[in-house]
Automatic annotation (TrEMBL):
Binds 1 potassium ion per subunit. (6S)-NADPHX binds at residues 64-68, 131-137, 160, 258, 319, 366, 433. The lineage of its organism: Bacteria, Pseudomonadati, Pseudomonadota, Gammaproteobacteria, Lysobacterales. GO terms for molecular function: ADP-dependent NAD(P)H-hydrate dehydratase activity; ATP binding; metal ion binding; NAD(P)HX epimerase activity. K(+) binds at residues 65, 127, 163. PROSITE patterns: YJEF_C_3, YJEF_N. The gene is nnrD. Residues 16-217 form the YjeF N-terminal domain. This is Bifunctional NAD(P)H-hydrate repair enzyme. Keywords: ATP-binding, Isomerase, Lyase, Metal-binding, Multifunctional enzyme, NAD, NADP, Nucleotide-binding, Potassium. GO terms for biological process: metabolite repair; nicotinamide nucleotide metabolic process.
Length: 494
């Protein structure tokens, strides 16, 4: 399916409903016609992905999503497919009632879903239960149906939203459909791109139902999907001083690996010079493994200060610890007011001693660190990742990367970008240290904090996808390093 020109714009459910009303009230497209177009789009997706399918089963709820399903069933039977329709309720309402009547008037049979019966042995199941209309856990009968679909052998096509998934937040309050393909209508819903949605949407498509560009005029998207980018070629007369000096600060006793990964990723991402301020015990290992890193023994603020003076950007936190040594270095580094990337224990210290930043700053918390920074719970952060990342950016006056499936980047004004790349293989130690170095290197090369965060998150996730071609399980953070170099130069495609 060709990519929609609006596929990188993400909207809230409220915004999509407003677009739907505008199409009906201002453009004069009847609701039943929108439903018919959605049915055509769903059937086209089904035939495209499963051209061999001869028998489908469609599961309809009582609302408009169910109406899409009834009309898809009618179109599929007209196309010669065998179609079973099962409904959660005996009636439908609004335009969905007309759609149901279309199916019945043409001789179609509607079976009421009975949890004691087996699902039809269809080639493809079509989920048209709830769409965007559910923000709670499905009731018992619907939950049983969804569980049966999830354990079955046949693939599931979800219409608009996998049922049970919150289209605003990406969370699943209860059980949710695990679709092989989701075809979304009119506008891309932001919740389908982050959090638990990664386990439910499958291949995600968007069909704008042939609506004109005028529909979107005056409505700004709530968020945007990142585009694949890289830095421009360097000037032929460039020298190392043109590309910035990153100082990575961290590596308390036993954590030399964290600060080394941070420093090495900064080098692989194009920083001209990278220094490391760490414990004396780590110098031999760092110099032996990566001599390009300028490793320095630092026992306190006095030995750190000369290094801070020479640096352009600070990468603060990997392996830093929260004891006296790490805390003293953290305070000294922050007091310089230099651009910085703050991660790991640098964030945990910030949670205890909050401050707003006046220089370009990027914070890179995972959900647990985000919860500590907000004095909230991890569960609440994950329940609405968009609200959490915006709250963090406003509270600390910084660019914030909320890591996880569908990482989010926010600025203090509320702008949000969503990362569409990455895999479960990246859920391993050292990945965050790597990201800190990438973003610091981009800051050092002249990117502003927003662009450094967006480009850095994108390069990091895409490198993870490239490395995962050899398998997700067993992926190491250092496996990303050669791909970071290639992607940063535009020499590899994920």
């Amino acid at each position: 399916m060709p990519s929609s020109p609006r596929s990188h714009d993400l909207y809230t459910v409220e915004q999509v409903r407003a677009l739907d009303r505008r199409a009906i009230d201002e453009l004069g497209v009847p609701g039943i016609e929108l439903m018919r177009r959605a049915a055509w789009a769903g059937l086209a997706s089904l035939r495209r992905h499963w051209p061999q399918a001869r028998h489908i089963a469609v599961y309809c709820g009582p609302g408009n999503n169910g109406g899409d399903g009834f009309l898809l069933a009618s179109l599929a039977r007209e196309a010669g497919l065998r179609v079973d329709v099962l409904a959660l309720a005996d009636t439908a309402h609004g335009d969905a009632a007309q759609a149901r009547a279309t199916w019945v008037d043409a001789g179609g049979i509607v079976r009421h879903w009975d949890a004691h019966e087996a699902l039809p042995s269809a080639d493809v199941h079509v989920d048209a239960l709830y769409g965007t209309g559910l923000h709670r856990a499905p009731d018992a009968d619907a939950a049983t149906l969804i569980e049966r679909l999830n354990v079955g052998d046949a693939p599931v096509l979800a219409l608009d939203v996998p049922s049970g998934l919150d289209a605003d937040s990406g969370r699943c309050p209860g059980v949710a459909v695990r679709a092989a393909v989701t075809v979304s209508f009119i506008a891309a819903k932001r919740g389908l791109r982050t959090g638990q949605a990664a386990d439910h949407v499958g291949q995600l498509e968007l069909d704008t139902l042939g609506l004109p560009d005028a529909l979107w005029q005056g409505m700004s998207a709530d968020a945007h999907i990142l585009l694949a980018e890289h830095l421009p070629p360097r000037a032929r007369a460039a020298h190392k001083g043109n590309h910035g000096h990153v100082l990575a600060i961290g590596g308390d006793h036993g954590t030399a690996g964290a600060v080394r990964l941070c420093g090495e990723s900064a080098l692989r991402s194009g920083a001209g010079l990278v220094s490391v301020a760490t414990r004396a015990e780590h110098l031999l290992a760092l110099n032996s493994a990566r001599p390009e890193l300028m490793a320095h023994a630092v026992d306190g603020p006095q030995t750190l200060e000369p290094l801070l003076e020479r640096a352009d950007v600070l990468a603060l936190g990997p392996g830093l610890g929260q004891r006296a040594w790490g805390h003293a270095l953290w305070l000294t580094a922050l007091d310089t007011g230099k651009p910085l990337v703050l991660d790991a224990d640098g964030l945990n210290l910030l949670a205890h001693e909050p401050r707003q930043f006046t220089r370009p700053t990027v914070l890179t918390p995972h959900p647990g660190e985000a919860a500590r920074l907000l004095h909230d719970t991890t569960e609440n952060v994950e329940a609405d990742r968009f609200a959490a990342v915006r709250a963090l950016a406003a509270r600390y006056h910084a660019i914030v990367v909320l890591k996880g499936a569908g990482s989010l980047i926010a600025d203090p004004a509320g702008r949000v970008a969503v990362c569409p790349w990455g895999s479960p293989g990246m859920a391993t130690g050292g990945m965050g240290d790597l990201l800190t170095g990438v973003i610091a290197a981009l800051l050092a090369q002249g990117c502003d904090a927003w662009r450094a965060a967006c480009l850095g998150v994108g390069l990091h996730a895409r490198a993870g996808d490239c490395a995962a071609r050899q398998g997700e399980r067993g992926l190491l953070a250092s496996d990303l390093l050669p791909h970071l170099r290639l992607l940063g130069n535009g020499l590899e495609h994920d």
